[in-house]
Protein backbone atom coordinates (compact mmCIF):
# COMPACT_ATOMS: atom_id res chain seq x y z
CA UNK A 1 0.00 0.00 0.00
CA UNK A 2 0.92 3.68 -0.25
CA UNK A 3 1.22 5.80 2.90
CA UNK A 4 2.74 9.03 4.21
CA UNK A 5 5.40 7.92 6.68
CA UNK A 6 7.97 10.23 8.24
CA UNK A 7 11.17 9.26 10.09
CA UNK A 8 12.23 12.74 11.23
CA UNK A 9 10.91 16.32 11.32
CA UNK A 10 10.26 17.48 7.75
CA UNK A 11 8.68 20.43 5.90
CA UNK A 12 5.21 19.95 4.45
CA UNK A 13 6.72 19.73 0.97
CA UNK A 14 8.51 16.52 2.03
CA UNK A 15 5.28 14.63 2.74
CA UNK A 16 5.57 12.04 -0.03
CA UNK A 17 3.98 8.60 -0.20
CA UNK A 18 6.06 5.48 0.22
CA UNK A 19 5.30 1.80 -0.21
CA UNK A 20 4.62 -0.09 3.03
CA UNK A 21 3.20 -3.54 3.81
CA UNK A 22 -0.57 -3.57 4.02
CA UNK A 23 -1.47 -4.15 7.69
CA UNK A 24 -3.18 -7.34 8.81
CA UNK A 25 -5.85 -7.62 11.52
CA UNK A 26 -4.84 -8.48 15.07
CA UNK A 27 -6.88 -8.95 18.23
CA UNK A 28 -8.79 -5.79 19.05
CA UNK A 29 -7.97 -4.20 15.69
CA UNK A 30 -9.45 -4.31 12.17
CA UNK A 31 -8.02 -3.15 8.86
CA UNK A 32 -9.85 -0.22 7.27
CA UNK A 33 -9.57 0.83 3.65
CA UNK A 34 -9.24 4.60 4.05
CA UNK A 35 -11.58 6.64 1.88
CA UNK A 36 -10.92 10.12 3.27
CA UNK A 37 -9.30 11.90 6.20
CA UNK A 38 -9.22 15.38 7.67
CA UNK A 39 -5.94 17.22 8.19
CA UNK A 40 -5.33 18.53 11.71
CA UNK A 41 -3.07 20.90 13.61
CA UNK A 42 -1.79 18.00 15.74
CA UNK A 43 -0.48 16.30 12.58
CA UNK A 44 1.37 19.48 11.65
CA UNK A 45 2.85 19.47 15.16
CA UNK A 46 3.92 15.84 14.76
CA UNK A 47 5.41 16.50 11.33
CA UNK A 48 7.52 19.27 12.87
CA UNK A 49 8.75 16.98 15.65
CA UNK A 50 6.97 18.94 18.36
CA UNK A 51 4.54 16.27 19.65
CA UNK A 52 4.40 14.88 23.17
CA UNK A 53 6.15 11.71 24.30
CA UNK A 54 3.53 9.30 22.88
CA UNK A 55 4.72 10.10 19.34
CA UNK A 56 7.58 8.04 17.91
CA UNK A 57 9.35 7.78 14.54
CA UNK A 58 8.92 6.29 12.05
CA UNK A 59 5.22 7.05 11.93
CA UNK A 60 2.34 7.20 9.46
CA UNK A 61 0.50 10.39 10.37
CA UNK A 62 -3.28 10.87 10.67
CA UNK A 63 -5.48 10.93 13.78
CA UNK A 64 -8.81 10.47 11.99
CA UNK A 65 -10.49 9.17 8.88
CA UNK A 66 -13.43 7.35 7.34
CA UNK A 67 -13.53 4.22 5.28
CA UNK A 68 -14.68 0.64 4.83
CA UNK A 69 -13.65 -2.42 6.84
CA UNK A 70 -11.46 -4.60 4.61
CA UNK A 71 -10.35 -7.31 7.07
CA UNK A 72 -11.50 -8.19 10.58
CA UNK A 73 -9.99 -9.79 13.66
CA UNK A 74 -11.77 -12.83 15.20
CA UNK A 75 -13.02 -10.66 18.08
CA UNK A 76 -14.32 -7.87 15.84
CA UNK A 77 -17.80 -6.38 16.33
CA UNK A 78 -17.64 -5.20 12.71
CA UNK A 79 -18.10 -6.83 9.29
CA UNK A 80 -16.10 -6.60 6.10
CA UNK A 81 -17.60 -3.88 3.91
CA UNK A 82 -19.03 -1.91 6.83
CA UNK A 83 -18.55 1.87 6.80
CA UNK A 84 -16.76 3.34 9.81
CA UNK A 85 -15.31 6.54 11.16
CA UNK A 86 -12.03 6.31 13.06
CA UNK A 87 -10.43 8.81 15.40
CA UNK A 88 -7.96 9.21 18.24
CA UNK A 89 -7.07 5.97 20.06
CA UNK A 90 -3.37 6.64 19.44
CA UNK A 91 -3.76 6.85 15.66
CA UNK A 92 -0.98 8.80 14.00
CA UNK A 93 0.88 9.15 17.27
CA UNK A 94 1.41 5.95 19.26
CA UNK A 95 0.41 3.78 16.27
CA UNK A 96 0.33 4.32 12.52
CA UNK A 97 -2.50 6.54 11.36
CA UNK A 98 -4.80 7.32 8.47
CA UNK A 99 -2.50 9.02 5.93
CA UNK A 100 -2.54 5.68 4.10
CA UNK A 101 -4.57 3.49 1.79
CA UNK A 102 -5.13 1.03 4.65
CA UNK A 103 -4.99 1.49 8.41
CA UNK A 104 -4.98 -0.92 11.36
CA UNK A 105 -7.52 0.60 13.77
CA UNK A 106 -8.45 -0.34 17.36
CA UNK A 107 -12.10 -1.31 17.71
CA UNK A 108 -12.41 1.30 20.46
CA UNK A 109 -11.40 4.04 18.00
CA UNK A 110 -14.15 3.26 15.46
CA UNK A 111 -17.79 4.28 15.07
CA UNK A 112 -20.09 2.47 12.61
CA UNK A 113 -21.64 4.54 9.80
CA UNK A 114 -24.23 4.14 7.10
CA UNK A 115 -24.43 6.97 4.60
CA UNK A 116 -24.55 7.82 0.91
CA UNK A 117 -22.90 11.20 1.43
CA UNK A 118 -19.71 11.99 -0.46
CA UNK A 119 -16.57 10.88 1.37
CA UNK A 120 -15.29 14.46 1.21
CA UNK A 121 -18.09 15.51 3.58
CA UNK A 122 -18.00 12.46 5.83
CA UNK A 123 -14.20 12.65 6.06
CA UNK A 124 -14.38 16.15 7.52
CA UNK A 125 -16.45 15.08 10.50
CA UNK A 126 -14.87 12.56 12.90
CA UNK A 127 -12.38 14.52 14.99
CA UNK A 128 -14.10 17.91 14.95
CA UNK A 129 -17.52 16.35 15.61
CA UNK A 130 -16.19 14.20 18.46
CA UNK A 131 -14.41 17.15 20.07
CA UNK A 132 -17.33 19.55 19.57
CA UNK A 133 -19.93 17.12 20.88
CA UNK A 134 -17.74 16.04 23.80
CA UNK A 135 -17.14 19.66 24.75
CA UNK A 136 -20.80 20.66 24.52
CA UNK A 137 -22.27 17.48 26.03
CA UNK A 138 -19.66 16.08 28.42
CA UNK A 139 -17.92 19.34 29.25
CA UNK A 140 -20.82 21.79 29.34
CA UNK A 141 -23.92 19.56 29.59
CA UNK A 142 -25.51 22.00 27.13
CA UNK A 143 -29.29 21.92 27.08
CA UNK A 144 -31.82 23.13 24.54
CA UNK A 145 -32.85 26.70 25.31
CA UNK A 146 -29.52 27.66 26.88
CA UNK A 147 -27.05 30.18 25.48
CA UNK A 148 -23.44 29.28 24.80
CA UNK A 149 -20.38 31.26 23.76
CA UNK A 150 -17.91 29.54 21.43
CA UNK A 151 -14.62 31.39 21.82
CA UNK A 152 -12.46 30.54 18.83
CA UNK A 153 -15.44 30.08 16.54
CA UNK A 154 -13.54 30.08 13.26
CA UNK A 155 -11.45 27.01 14.19
CA UNK A 156 -12.69 23.68 12.86
CA UNK A 157 -13.93 22.58 16.28
CA UNK A 158 -15.44 26.03 16.78
CA UNK A 159 -17.28 25.86 13.47
CA UNK A 160 -18.69 22.43 14.28
CA UNK A 161 -19.62 23.55 17.80
CA UNK A 162 -21.63 26.42 16.32
CA UNK A 163 -23.53 24.15 13.94
CA UNK A 164 -24.01 21.39 16.52
CA UNK A 165 -25.02 23.80 19.27
CA UNK A 166 -27.75 25.22 17.06
CA UNK A 167 -28.88 21.71 16.08
CA UNK A 168 -29.13 20.82 19.77
CA UNK A 169 -31.43 23.80 20.37
CA UNK A 170 -29.04 26.29 21.99
CA UNK A 171 -28.53 29.96 21.15
CA UNK A 172 -24.94 30.23 19.99
CA UNK A 173 -22.65 33.24 20.25
CA UNK A 174 -19.26 32.93 18.58
CA UNK A 175 -16.02 34.86 18.27
CA UNK A 176 -13.46 35.51 15.58
CA UNK A 177 -10.60 37.95 15.27
CA UNK A 178 -11.19 38.50 11.55
CA UNK A 179 -14.29 40.37 10.31
CA UNK A 180 -14.05 38.53 6.98
CA UNK A 181 -15.06 35.30 8.76
CA UNK A 182 -18.23 36.68 10.39
CA UNK A 183 -20.57 35.71 7.54
CA UNK A 184 -19.37 32.10 7.59
CA UNK A 185 -19.97 31.76 11.33
CA UNK A 186 -23.46 33.21 11.00
CA UNK A 187 -24.23 30.89 8.09
CA UNK A 188 -23.36 27.91 10.28
CA UNK A 189 -25.80 28.99 12.98
CA UNK A 190 -24.28 31.68 15.19
CA UNK A 191 -26.98 34.04 16.41
CA UNK A 192 -24.32 36.70 16.89
CA UNK A 193 -20.61 36.88 16.07
CA UNK A 194 -18.28 38.97 18.22
CA UNK A 195 -14.95 40.37 17.04
CA UNK A 196 -12.55 39.16 19.71
CA UNK A 197 -10.68 42.14 21.16
CA UNK A 198 -9.73 40.32 24.35
CA UNK A 199 -12.54 41.89 26.37
CA UNK A 200 -15.74 40.09 25.48
CA UNK A 201 -17.68 40.80 28.67
CA UNK A 202 -18.29 44.37 27.51
CA UNK A 203 -19.83 43.02 24.30
CA UNK A 204 -22.10 40.58 26.19
CA UNK A 205 -23.49 42.60 29.11
CA UNK A 206 -26.36 40.13 29.62
CA UNK A 207 -23.94 37.21 29.73
CA UNK A 208 -24.39 33.61 28.60
CA UNK A 209 -25.24 30.38 30.38
CA UNK A 210 -22.13 28.49 29.28
CA UNK A 211 -18.94 29.02 27.32
CA UNK A 212 -16.54 26.85 25.33
CA UNK A 213 -12.92 28.03 25.52
CA UNK A 214 -10.90 27.11 22.44
CA UNK A 215 -8.40 30.00 22.41
CA UNK A 216 -6.53 29.05 25.59
CA UNK A 217 -5.59 30.12 29.08
CA UNK A 218 -4.69 33.57 27.78
CA UNK A 219 -8.39 34.39 27.38
CA UNK A 220 -9.89 31.99 29.94
CA UNK A 221 -10.65 34.52 32.66
CA UNK A 222 -12.14 37.02 30.23
CA UNK A 223 -14.35 34.16 29.03
CA UNK A 224 -15.40 33.57 32.65
CA UNK A 225 -16.53 37.20 32.80
CA UNK A 226 -19.07 36.51 30.03
CA UNK A 227 -20.73 33.66 31.96
CA UNK A 228 -23.60 34.35 34.33
CA UNK A 229 -23.58 33.28 37.99
CA UNK A 230 -24.00 29.52 38.17
CA UNK A 231 -22.60 29.11 34.66
CA UNK A 232 -19.92 26.80 33.34
CA UNK A 233 -16.80 27.19 31.21
CA UNK A 234 -15.25 24.22 29.40
CA UNK A 235 -11.58 24.45 28.42
CA UNK A 236 -10.92 22.37 25.30
CA UNK A 237 -8.31 24.12 23.19
CA UNK A 238 -5.30 26.39 23.14
CA UNK A 239 -5.37 27.96 19.69
CA UNK A 240 -3.25 30.85 20.97
CA UNK A 241 -0.80 28.45 22.61
CA UNK A 242 -1.95 28.88 26.21
CA UNK A 243 -2.37 25.47 27.86
CA UNK A 244 -1.28 26.17 31.45
CA UNK A 245 -1.93 28.75 34.18
CA UNK A 246 1.11 29.92 36.12
CA UNK A 247 0.77 29.73 39.90
CA UNK A 248 -2.77 28.39 39.63
CA UNK A 249 -5.02 28.63 42.67
CA UNK A 250 -8.61 27.36 42.90
CA UNK A 251 -9.54 30.85 44.08
CA UNK A 252 -8.87 32.02 40.53
CA UNK A 253 -12.16 30.40 39.54
CA UNK A 254 -14.90 33.03 40.01
CA UNK A 255 -17.23 32.28 42.92
CA UNK A 256 -20.37 30.44 41.88
CA UNK A 257 -19.03 29.47 38.45
CA UNK A 258 -17.63 26.14 37.25
CA UNK A 259 -14.46 25.34 35.30
CA UNK A 260 -14.23 22.02 33.52
CA UNK A 261 -12.31 20.63 30.54
CA UNK A 262 -12.67 18.15 27.72
CA UNK A 263 -10.14 15.82 26.08
CA UNK A 264 -11.93 12.64 25.09
CA UNK A 265 -12.00 9.71 22.72
CA UNK A 266 -14.30 8.10 20.15
CA UNK A 267 -16.39 6.52 22.91
CA UNK A 268 -17.74 9.97 23.81
CA UNK A 269 -19.44 10.27 20.41
CA UNK A 270 -22.54 8.04 20.20
CA UNK A 271 -23.12 6.34 16.84
CA UNK A 272 -26.71 7.62 17.06
CA UNK A 273 -25.48 11.22 17.22
CA UNK A 274 -23.13 10.69 14.29
CA UNK A 275 -26.03 9.22 12.33
CA UNK A 276 -28.24 12.17 13.27
CA UNK A 277 -25.60 14.59 12.01
CA UNK A 278 -25.17 12.67 8.75
CA UNK A 279 -28.93 12.75 8.16
CA UNK A 280 -29.04 16.47 8.95
CA UNK A 281 -26.26 17.06 6.41
CA UNK A 282 -28.08 14.98 3.80
CA UNK A 283 -31.27 16.98 4.42
CA UNK A 284 -29.31 20.27 4.10
CA UNK A 285 -30.18 21.11 7.70
CA UNK A 286 -26.53 21.23 8.79
CA UNK A 287 -23.51 22.41 6.85
CA UNK A 288 -20.17 20.64 7.11
CA UNK A 289 -17.48 23.36 7.25
CA UNK A 290 -15.06 22.17 4.55
CA UNK A 291 -12.32 24.58 3.50
CA UNK A 292 -10.91 22.58 0.59
CA UNK A 293 -10.91 19.03 -0.75
CA UNK A 294 -7.69 17.37 -1.95
CA UNK A 295 -7.34 14.19 -4.00
CA UNK A 296 -4.70 11.58 -3.29
CA UNK A 297 -1.80 11.29 -0.88
CA UNK A 298 0.34 13.43 -3.17
CA UNK A 299 -1.71 16.48 -2.10
CA UNK A 300 -1.28 16.01 1.67
CA UNK A 301 1.66 18.44 1.76
CA UNK A 302 -0.46 21.12 0.09
CA UNK A 303 -3.26 20.48 2.58
CA UNK A 304 -0.93 20.92 5.56
CA UNK A 305 0.57 24.07 4.04
CA UNK A 306 -2.88 25.58 3.54
CA UNK A 307 -3.92 24.63 7.07
CA UNK A 308 -0.85 26.37 8.50
CA UNK A 309 -1.50 29.50 6.46
CA UNK A 310 -4.63 30.39 8.44
CA UNK A 311 -6.22 31.80 5.29
CA UNK A 312 -8.98 29.21 5.10
CA UNK A 313 -12.17 28.66 7.08
CA UNK A 314 -13.13 25.04 7.65
CA UNK A 315 -11.66 21.57 7.38
CA UNK A 316 -9.06 20.45 4.86
CA UNK A 317 -10.04 16.97 3.63
CA UNK A 318 -8.03 14.48 1.57
CA UNK A 319 -10.01 11.93 -0.47
CA UNK A 320 -8.31 8.75 -1.66
CA UNK A 321 -9.25 7.24 -5.02
CA UNK A 322 -9.29 3.61 -3.91
From TrEMBL:
SUPFAM superfamilies: GroES-like, NAD(P)-binding Rossmann-fold domains
InterPro entries noted in UniProt: ADH-like_C (IPR013149), ADH-like_N (IPR013154), ER (IPR020843), GroES-like_sf (IPR011032), NAD(P)-bd_dom_sf (IPR036291)
Annotated GO MF terms: NADPH binding; oxidoreductase activity, acting on NAD(P)H
Presence of the UniProt keyword NADP in the record: yes
Coiled-coil ranges per UniProt: none
Keywords for this protein: NADP, Oxidoreductase
The keyword Cell division appears for this protein: no
Segments forming domain Enoyl reductase (ER): 13-318
A Pfam match: ADH_zinc_N
Protein name: Dehydrogenase
UniProt source species: Lacticaseibacillus nasuensis JCM 17158
Amino acid sequence: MQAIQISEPVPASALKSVTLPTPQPVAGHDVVQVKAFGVNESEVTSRKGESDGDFHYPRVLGIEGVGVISATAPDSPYQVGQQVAMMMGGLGRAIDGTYAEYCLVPHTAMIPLKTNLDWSLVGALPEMLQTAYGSLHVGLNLQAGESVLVRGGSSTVGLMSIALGKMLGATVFATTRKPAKVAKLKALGAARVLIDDGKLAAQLPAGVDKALELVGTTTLFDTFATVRAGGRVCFTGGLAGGWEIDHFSPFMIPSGKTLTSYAGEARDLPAELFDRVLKAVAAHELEVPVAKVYHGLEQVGEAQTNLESGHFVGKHVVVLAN
